[in-house]
Amino acid sequence: MARPSFGFRRAQRSLARLAVITAISIGASAGWTLTQPGPASAAGCVVISAVRFDATGDDSKNLNGEWVKVTNRCDRMIGVGGWRVKDRAGNKYTFASTVRMGKGSIYLHTGRGDNRPGHRYWGRTSQVWNNSGTETAYLINKAGTTVSKVTRVMSMTTPTPPPPSTGVWSTPFGTRPSSGAISLRDCNNVTISNKTFRDLGANVVAIRLQNCTNVTISAVDFINVSEGVYAADSTNIQVIDSRYQNITGPHERDGSNRANFVQFNRVSGGLIDHNKGKGGDTEDVVSLYQTSNVIVEDNHFEGTNWTSTSGSGIALGDGGGSNNIARRNTLVNIGQVGIFIASGVNNRIQDNIIYGEPRTNSNVGIYVWNQGGGTCSGAEVTGNKVHFQKANGTQSGYWEGGGCGSVTKSGNDFWAPLVLSNLRVGL
């Protein structure tokens, strides 16, 4: 395949000065909460706070898209070793004896994976939660007492996956309480949720984090904002179950932090999961710059009025970074490129669906290319379904530009028979 004419790369990204915000100076309308120590009784501390019974797409191929969210609502450490999560059929997962929880959550995923803070993996090779009829997730303590349960009753004829209006997105888009822009420095254990950021003005980033640890952004809507989330020099940042419409940018790479739905700059550890969005003149919808150990999974993004000559749906290893994964995402007419690896070590593109019609500046579905001259190795591109065309209509599913050594490729279809009408985003 001919070399793509990318016409960039990437003079990144001077950090704008961040305002120092303290708990005293933020009003309730800002929409964030900071963990404060306080008295708590043991009763009712640890509960099941959410369950995704039905994973996106085919559950058997997306086992980790099923999860149970176990949350400690109290302000002290609680040992949950020996506690069990159980379904109605009697399948059980038991937490290891050493597991303790501070205030916060653990996601228990059905499939296999490497346990890490905030995430445990059941290790199953088949789904556990029913997609029809009645299903219940139970949390049972070490003494055998059921301390929490969540039941979902479903029609036997309900199709899967569920329509966009169900589950975490049952709240109509844009109807959550309004919030002004939030900028945090040196923050820890923060949750920002149930807010709408709308029409914030030119070059205003909705949520900006500097030197923060353990921040979760969930169930948030972004409408007509320059950028959704920007995090720099931070650890364990999660953006989940959120939506956007029309990221305004502009997309020019001039050192400003804007024109992305999510941009991580020198972040270590995180999750960008189960978000969806449509429209906007984005640069990279999700950008990982000098960032490591972040998973970008089960997101659904569609472009409409995109014009960038260098943007993408998901950017991995930009400027370096290791052990990032983009998996099970669906990208529709998004960017000049669907997903790319630009450098770094052991970055992976797995099981994604990427569709691109011929558009001005459209180029290639997936590429691996060392653009920065640093280390680039261990890249994997596996199990992807791509139907992507250049601006002139020629097929352009995959390209390697060199400098990354041997790229592991298997199970890809770079001219898959994808149907656009089945891939549209609904907000």
Structural class: mainly beta
The DSSP helix count reads: 0
State the end-to-end distance.
Answer: 36 Å
Mind telling me the C-alpha Rg? 21 Å
The coarse silhouette is globular
Please give a structural write-up:
It is a single chain. The chain contains no helices and 35 strands. Helices cover 0% and strands 44% of the residues. 46% of the residues are buried. It is mainly β and 427 residues long. The strands form five sheets. The protein has a 23-stranded mixed sheet that branches. The protein has a four-stranded mixed sheet with strand order 2-3-8-9, with no helix packed on it. It has a four-stranded antiparallel sheet with strand order 6-5-10-11, with no helix packed on it. A hairpin with a 5-residue loop joins β5 and β6 (92-94).
Question: Keyphrases for this structure?
Answer:
mainly beta; four-stranded mixed sheet; globular
Topology:
Blueprint: E1 32-34, E2 46-52, E3 67-72, E4 78-79, E5 84-86, E6 92-94, E7 100-101, E8 104-109, E9 119-121, E10 133-140, E11 146-154, E12 182-185, E13 188-198, E14 205-210, E15 213-225, E16 227-240, E17 243-247, E18 262-273, E19 276-280, E20 284-289, E21 292-297, E22 300-302, E23 312-318, E24 325-327, E25 330-332, E26 337-341, E27 344-345, E28 348-350, E29 353-356, E30 364-369, E31 376-377, E32 380-382, E33 385-388, E34 398-402, E35 408-410
Parallel strand pairs: 8-9, 12-14, 13-15, 14-16, 15-16, 15-17, 16-18, 17-19, 18-20, 18-21, 19-22, 20-23, 21-24, 22-25, 23-26, 24-28, 25-29, 26-30, 27-31, 28-32, 29-33, 30-34, 32-35
Antiparallel strand pairs: 1-13, 2-3, 3-8, 4-7, 5-6, 5-10, 10-11
